[in-house]
Amino acid sequence: MFHTAKNTLQKIRTKYKAFREKRRAREKKHFLKPEQKEKLVAFLNRYSLIFHYLLACSVCFVIEIISRHSFVSAFIFIFDRGLVFLYNSMIVFTSLHLVYFFRRRALMRTIISVAWLFLGTINGCILAKRVTPFTYTDVKLINDLFTMQSNYFSNGEALAVILLVASVLAGIIILWKKGPKYQGRQNRFASIGAIGLFAFFIPMVTQAAVNNNVLADYFENIAQGYEDYGFVYSFSASVMDQGMRAPQDYSQETVDTALSKVNPEASDSSELPNVICVLLESFIDPKEINFLNFSENPTPNFDHLYSNYSSGYLTVPVVGAGTANTEFEILTGMGMKYFGLGEYPYKTILKSTSCESVASDLGNNLGYGTHVVHNNGGNFYSRKNAFTQMGFDSFISKEMMNIQEYTPLGTWPTDNILIGEVEKALDSTEQQDFIYTITVQGHGAYPTEKVIENPEITVTGAENEAKNNEWEYYVNQIHEVDKFIANLTDMLSKRDEKTVVVFFGDHLPTMGLKDEDTKSQSIFNTKYVTWNNFGMKKTDQDLTSYQLLAAIMDQANIHEGTMFSFHQNSSYQLTEENSRDMELLQYDILYGKRYAYQGEDLYPASNLQMGVQDVTLERVEALDDGLHIYGTNFTPWSKAFVNGARVSTSFISDRELKISMNNFEEGANSLVVNQMGSSETIFRSSNEISYLKPVMEQPEPSEELPVDDTTENTPSSIDKAVNGGQQDEPSQQDDSDAPDHPADLDEEENGDLNLTE
Asked: What Rg, from alpha-carbon coordinates, does the chain have?
């Protein structure tokens, strides 16, 4: 046996030796001779800077092809804006100098090039789904991307990305193990000097290019900016240019001068109305699109309000995505134009800094109850934290709602559920309320295939059938939103409370629209309309989103807040002087020494409460299929915790949940139900009850029906479960972290890679 094994190993060794010799022979036949190879390597090393710049140009060219989704467009960009392209290449070229710190230069060249191409590919993928390009701030939204990816990308697309990334990583590993090493003398000091030289000159070159209109340091339209100045420069600018820069003349004196324009009139406290502000996701009056035709008017209720109450065009800071930035302007009266490229204040400055807002102004100064109502995730865009920093009292997010109805694609909740939640917010306080409501039904993406078999509204006029299908789906969702507008105002009209409501679109949908496609001749224009039940005078005017609430409150004789009073006193005219003063006040409040507040924090963060109704546990009952939990205000996001540990939970109705008996230990067990957000966030907890599991022989696990957390709840299944269980197993609500629905619901602004909400 020993000899047999020895002979076998000898044969294997002989065969491997023969194979190795053959391979060496092939290498000698097909590759350069050693001396030729040495000469080539020496030549490449001697002129590596030239080859690095050629490589940088190639990388930039490929990135532009990916970003523009067109070889021809990238080629035109090179020739039309040659200096811009060379500048982009210089940035990549500078990054390639890092290879001189390593002996594995081929590996480092590959890694750096792949890194740039990876960023460009992300930008291309995002632009395929939304209008707003990829910025550095989007990196901070990565968690939001994972919660909403299925709303934008199919499983096949996600798998393709995973395979591509895996292939690239495999190639890098092979190159690390098998790639060549630089054998010459390394001069790291020279490399440091070269990088330092570039670091010194690039800002000078950049400023010169800006001064000569070769580059721009501010993009009024970020998508157009990326197209005009290339991805590499634009993305790099979003990295370097964050937050707000201190105005050159920032001081106590200049802030005091700006504050002299903030001298609000006294609000009429005896006649204060409820103020309800409703953000209509991706809403635009479809009749504003020049080329579309409709079988009937999609927005009759919106049109009625437009004709009979204060209304006008609304200029917003984003297009196609970026809901949170329109939202920031609306709630604070501050302008996004003073921030760096691609900024999301919710994800940056408001992470840890309190901010005066309409909520703190009305709440602190006039005693309003202040609430947010939104039929999607409480953590998206870091909204829970942002609303805390803005001083809101409560936030009713989807996790606090019994959502059962979704859009035809199953991607977003419908908006009618918000009517009851707004009413709950109004009923939760005895005083006047400010309620900020965020809808989601109109959110993209929109299908290119026909989804609605018999749509209420048929649409024609788009360039091809796929686009017509997109518009038809969108218009029919907007038609449903229009019904929501009527239903909400109808509910409010039946309440004996003075109320003013403002509805507005946060940005255009992601349809690739251009200025000339719209009647207003601007893709940054949406519309706003109002409603009231106390005879407020109709005052039509076109506004920016940071002026909107100032104007509406002005009409209602409410004069509160630094920024809102500033807009009221400036008569909504942003002259050069007013713009400078607005920037001073905004910087002082967010980043400066708060001269406007005498250096104090006059508007601290609030103790935000999620929801306005308690989740209560009343009793439990052990049945054959598990332990049934009875109580109030359960939602599909209610999860049971036994002895402090989360357990798989089946949602049956707003008064009943079910868990497995296997989750309990013999004897006393504590039971709590928590309302769960993404990333294992506990938004609200019920009271705790105790369950005593009897010490007895338990049925075999096979005798229990399994808890299936993957099946969608439907109204019919809930009815069956509640009315006698006339089915083998009630439908179960998914109990994973991210899933909000079978389509893995969460928002945009996309994102608003909104990230496109």
From this structure: 31
